[in-house]
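Can't attach files on this board, so I'm pasting raw text. These are the components:
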Amino acid sequence: MNETVVRGGRVWRPGRALEAADVLIRDGVIVAVGPDVGTADAEIIDVPGQLILPGLVEAHCHLDKTLYGGPWVPHSAGEPLAERIANDRDRRGELGIPDVDRITALLERMIACGTSHVRSHTDVDPEVGLRGIEAVRAAADRLDGRVTVEQVAFPQHGVLTNPGTAELLEEALKNGVETIGGIDPAGFDRDPVGQLNVIFGLAGRYGAGIDIHLHDGGTLGAFEFELVIERTEAAGLGGRVAISHGYALPQIDAAHRERLVERLAAAGVTLVTGAVYDFPVPPVKKLRAAGANVACGHDGIRDLWGPFGSGDMLERAMHLAYRNTFRRDEDIELALEAATHGGARLLGLPAYGLEPGAPADLVAVRAGTAAEAVVTHPPRDLVLKNGRTIVQNGVLLPG
Amino acid sequence: MNETVVRGGRVWRPGRALEAADVLIRDGVIVAVGPDVGTADAEIIDVPGQLILPGLVEAHCHLDKTLYGGPWVPHSAGEPLAERIANDRDRRGELGIPDVDRITALLERMIACGTSHVRSHTDVDPEVGLRGIEAVRAAADRLDGRVTVEQVAFPQHGVLTNPGTAELLEEALKNGVETIGGIDPAGFDRDPVGQLNVIFGLAGRYGAGIDIHLHDGGTLGAFEFELVIERTEAAGLGGRVAISHGYALPQIDAAHRERLVERLAAAGVTLVTGAVYDFPVPPVKKLRAAGANVACGHDGIRDLWGPFGSGDMLERAMHLAYRNTFRRDEDIELALEAATHGGARLLGLPAYGLEPGAPADLVAVRAGTAAEAVVTHPPRDLVLKNGRTIVQNGVLLPG
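---
Top answer:
Structure tokens for the assembled complex are below.
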């Protein structure tokens, strides 16, 4: 029996006071959280006074596109979306994207920052085929269980407007990809009902989840929210569908927003946000108060779409809290919840958090409160994945 | 003759290509920038391939209010401005604000991050009197020339609405405080012309600069911009007046904004921004294209007004670039310019930058380009102030 006690920390669980408690881990799973747990034989890891968080969840990124770990590449795209997509298509060959080494470098960075689960939207189109999917899998395999990577087969360059894409999305699902993506069914693909019917159809046939990029703003985007919600309810897919970005939600008038928030909650559709650049940020407090799930991710990290992003989900939670003008601890913790439990709900993890029965994925940092950890995003002194110590003093340990 | 060569770096100057060059320093002043400078006797500091930036300029903070360096203090204020002001007034006594040790800790942090000049808005009111001014001076004195601190006598709790404040502002100017502040002449003090006349009157009598907090939004705030511009022109104070925050500018319609940007440029009024929380951020590119000056600062850092802020001006420039949705190197550099040369212009520094004749205030970091330094804000490997090495490997050297 392999028993470990993470001793002397203060355990964070959303909505509860911090609790000075030891964490008892047996065979990679948390079996008890409290005072004086464990047998005399247990291996002891002392974290005196440190804050213990569950493994962080990166809920929306694009691993396949990253240039992370390589030299700085100045951004070369124009501003309009169409130009950025064209730039992406033109330059990914030149830069050797997707690149397993770069994806590995970014995953290593994420792990060193305490991320235990990642959802990555991977380009699938007739030009790149399933090479991105394979590259992300190859990189994840190299990390040998130190992080879990779920992929979304993502039609970055359109579904209806890019012939052959739907067939490749289906191919990806047959190949075991867990989730199917979409992009601006109206604004980009020019036929919201058409794209959503393809996506929901495929999801139904293969038992896949759905996660749709929705940048379309205002009442157009809000209409697409409604189409997604209607189809989620009709297909009984509550809990398995997400809208990423969803810029429309903060843009529409308050009464409309309130109705949409209620409908997201009732339908079990998650809103995933990165709080990136100056783009609209969802009202996290209102969403959570209504019972809607919110998850958080970086979106692109050092890629042809933009040079920003660090891979650190505590820093990303800072952006989400900051853009919500959260100042109070209990509000800032909502951003951390999105970067932990919210992401875990999105991914449908069967057990998660600092509770008995959950895999022992945890992070220890020096911070007085969870809010301080978000504000300062200090080095990760200790990271465990399935009970295994994989990071010490901010450094990823060799496999 | 005390000669130093900072050797092997790549020198950043706004609007110019990076240049591989050595920096020759004599008696604390840069005397040459180029290849193979200096005599055989010069002390050599090798910075192979590193990016060399001028000393960073923190153009707007509130040193007197900070709780930096102490334990985490959960935010306790309500949302409306009046509640936050009341919370500040109620709790500053309890928490021992202003505190010379905490101000010193924050200044040390700023120095370790490469900041060489600071403008701090310090509360002046009948309750606190000039104690804040004295505390900031005492802390700056402790740092013994490693950073330059300019103060703004700041009527946080109003001028007209807080009797005795105008007299204390005058007292501060008599005491050598360089700049006089103001706050929302309309929204807070209820008489824009009245407050501005007091402030411009005092500035004229004592030869002080002016830096006014203006949160008032929309057309009200824009009207106050105009009042400030008119008085700046009438008094011949071009180059010595700033509006901090100026949320109205991005809020008004585009044509109105364009006129106001032109007038700011013509009048020589600087716009100072922190790009804080979700508050409106000025259009940096438009301002600079019109020739208006932009400077950058944190606003509050870990105080009763909010828990955020790190003291790192490269990180702050990141926020400014990010909220402007700058992706291209030359755009991101505009944010760095605000955090360096823009701040230097605001402060009226007679010589500044990586040019012969300027004090040798410089920072070396590992970054491929200035934009990368903003995005990653890496540790400061070396910081010089007036030619003196004060930071190595991110650590402030003992006095």
